[in-house]
Amino acid sequence: MGYAELVADVIRNVTTTPAADLEEAGPGISHEVYSKLVPFIIGVITLVGLVGNSIVVYVIVCQGHLKTVTNYYIVNLAITDIFYLVFCAPFTASLYATTSWLFGQFMCKFVFYMMQVTAQATCATLTAMSIDRYYAITDPLKSLKTRTPRVAIVVSVVIWTGSALLAIPVAVYFNDVEFADGNETYQFCRATWPYPIFYPGYAVYCFVMLYVIPLSIIAVCYTIVLNRLWKTVAPTEESHAPVHLRILMQKRRVTRMILAVVLAFAACWIGVHVMSLWRGIDPDNFPKTNMVVFVYQVFAHLLSYLNSCVNPFVYAFMGGNFRKQMVRAFPFMKGKKNSATDGPSGSLIKSKSTQV
């Protein structure tokens, strides 16, 4: 059970569980509540995410600041979030309100295929950013030959191509099927794998490929990078530091910002993967009407969407240059106090081609 399959089954479970079973499981929730509340929350997340990530792309690309390797990866990450919110969020949100898939066979395959593609592209982009940070900090001189915009473009193309190919099983085996529950019949989009072993197998595959391996690589890279930076950079005032020390402190800020993005990803996706493994490996003992599990499923699903709108806030709070360039792009955002935009430079956008 991969990410797309988990989302499909989570929605099927919460939209087809009889109201009597929910009331018996525990008070405080009903079909009417989550059929209105969950789509509303997803709608807010989608709106915020689209606006925030579009601003990131506009400020970096349209304002002419797409000159550093880090910025290329940040734009790629923003695009994956935009695609996820545009092609996936509205359709899955509608299932909470309607309880049936209304969009036919083609959209069933396309929506959940894009869900898997963007999930894989997000993981790969974060891993590439972390490896890029590793080379930038541990071997800054030699990395100048490989850390170029052209290489970043090639890596991004490879990420999207690989993600598209690895998600083909979702496009092949997701189908618009009829689901019967007592006297009720629903149309639902879900995976119909040819062999039973594929259900737990795909769950393990996605957990390892989309969580364990990326985060393991990221953890190793950042352990080395943070150790190097915190040993090299002395706790001195940047304004009185030599040029090389200011550059190191600038690299520290960029690294800290990307680390925050990675930690947000890890926190937002752990719930989905735990539920995916549980449902995939032990479906017979999965408590479908347990109130705690029921709420956890919905919460994990919403948290995975939330990850697509948090990154712009990380850039805004931790990226001094991003705030400056955003104010330049949108002058009406400039307030009386400029302290918010006068933060330390080098956190996200550099108008010069200096590689950080």
TrEMBL record:
Chain intervals with Polar residues compositional bias: 338-356
Record has DNA repair as a keyword: no
Keyword set includes Cytoplasm: no
GO cellular component, one term: plasma membrane
Topological category with respect to the lipid bilayer: Multi-pass membrane protein
Short name of any one Pfam family annotated for the protein: 7tm_1
Keywords: Cell membrane, Disulfide bond, G-protein coupled receptor, Glycoprotein, Membrane, Receptor, Transducer, Transmembrane, Transmembrane helix
Gene Ontology molecular function, alphabetical: G protein-coupled receptor activity
Subcellular location: Cell membrane
Highest taxon in the source lineage: Eukaryota
InterPro entries tied to this protein: GPCR_Rhodpsn, GPCR_Rhodpsn_7TM, KiSS_1_rcpt
Primary site of residence: membrane
Span list, region Disordered: 336-356
Gene3D superfamilies per UniProt: Rhodopsin 7-helix transmembrane proteins
Domain G-protein coupled receptors family 1 profile: 52-315
UniProt-listed SMART domains: 7TM_GPCR_Srsx
Transmembrane segments: 37-61, 73-98, 110-131, 151-174, 202-225, 257-278, 298-318
PANTHER family attached to this UniProt entry: GALANIN-LIKE G-PROTEIN COUPLED RECEPTOR NPR-9, LEUCOKININ RECEPTOR-RELATED
Annotated protein name in UniProt: G-protein coupled receptors family 1 profile domain-containing protein
